[in-house]
Design a protein that fits this description.
Deoxyuridine 5'-Triphosphate Nucleotidohydrolase, Chain A, single chain
Length: 147
Amino acid sequence: MNELTIDIKNTSNQPAPTYQTEGSAGFDFCANLTEAIILQPRQRAIVPTGIHIALPVGYELQVRGRSGLAAKHGIGLVNGVGTIDSDYRGEIGVILINHGDEPFDINPGDRIAQGIVARYEKVSWNVVDDLEVTDRGAGGFGRTGKV
């Protein structure tokens, strides 16, 4: 498997983001905190990571929630998936929200999100009057008969 080398500046007290297993698609971001944050139900907070990166043009970093935090505690990302663009050099912050019914402690070094680097394509729009008709037409939203 090819690996992409990305410049990283780590100003946190934690190691650089790491893959937990050989087959992991995402690497973990840790909370760069000096003391715990208590995230109350329905409360959101930007949790710093201390990580700054320089992505090559044509790549983005997707910041995603961790399934264990969501399933066990109702903790997710406010915006679902965050995008870090190739021209952003600031600190990566993770916008967490507590969808649960109990306060949730975020401690220094806790794994709070995962990141996936993905290639993307820029598009140019070709404006037309009509599009090719397909079997699906314009249905969408569950119209394939599957629930």
